[in-house]
Amino acid sequence: MPDPTRREAGVTPAVSICIPTYNGARYLAASLRSVLEQTFGDFEVVVVDDGSTDDTPVIAGEFARADDRVRVHRNPKNLGLVGNWNRCVEVAHAPWIKFVFQDDLLRPHGLEGLLNVARATGVPLAFGRRAFLFEDGTDAETRQRYEDAARRIAGLYPRDGGTDAAAFSRVVLEHAGRNVVGEPVAVLLRRDVFDTVGRFHPEVAVFCDMEYWARVGTRFGVAHTCETVADFRVHGGSTTARSTAGDHFRMFVLDPLVVLHDMAHEDVYAPLRHIAAEHGVDLAQRFVAMAHWARGEARRIAASSAGTDRRPLDHLEHLQRRMPHLRRVLDQPLQPAASAGVLQRAWRAVRRGRIA
Length: 356
Description:
- With 356 residues, the chain is of the alpha/beta class.
- It has 15 helices and nine strands.
- The protein has two domains: 15-241, Spore Coat Polysaccharide Biosynthesis Protein SpsA, Chain A, CATH 3.90.550; 243-351, no CATH class.
- Helix 1 (25-36) links the parallel strand 1 (15-21) and strand 2 (43-49).
């Protein structure tokens, strides 16, 4: 019987399982073990470490020495979360890419189930259901939010199969601002999709996965299985509660603004705009409303901190340099009364944390 820990040199595997790491020593060994216990064995494991200062590189190296399927890369400088995700794509060899984060677990049949539904439907993005590993200290509100999201996603895709691009676009519009797929540990991507629609967005800090699923799915559709393929770890404590007003602005105002900018203006989202127009949704007008609201929030935070927290204004200025549409919008006053109704509806949506 062939040794599953040994890989024939020069043979490209079917799947690259990418594990981006940063100071993940506490959970990395368990995550790697779950990956190596897959029922589908034709894969490589690519651990890409982003400058960890704990024992993460040591643990990854031990697994690499014991199993030829594991490779370890260390970035010469810290790239940050999104940069490291994109680095994983660069160093992966296989035609399919599966992300597993350093503290998550992949179920034994997870990879096989995702690959089966992806191949059966022929689309480049497949996902399954995920369970949650709630750490001690996770508050009831956080638990409820994750469980509600899981139920919502399960209700959108009640059976194995595919959802075409038009139908998925309608889902994105109806559930704007929400992740309608799940976390990366539940997703399988065909590598060539990165050549077609680009890589993870460098200007999106928190919603980078949600944005990418929308970018791919509104062009190609998605495949889904009802099988639980992974366990996603939710850490104790609320990120929102710990963050300052400036941090909150970066995550929950600017991220949605960047996503809505691209949906309203970038070529890759043309199919979504077509569906939106059919349903009377003006994404460009909603972007106008959100941009002005974001600037108002940035000014409010600066004023309430007596000018000591200018990060929101600085972040917004940075985006204006990168996004000409945003600068043009903010150089113009809000539309007069003829557009007041549209703007008011968009404003209310923005304040509820919705992006379209």
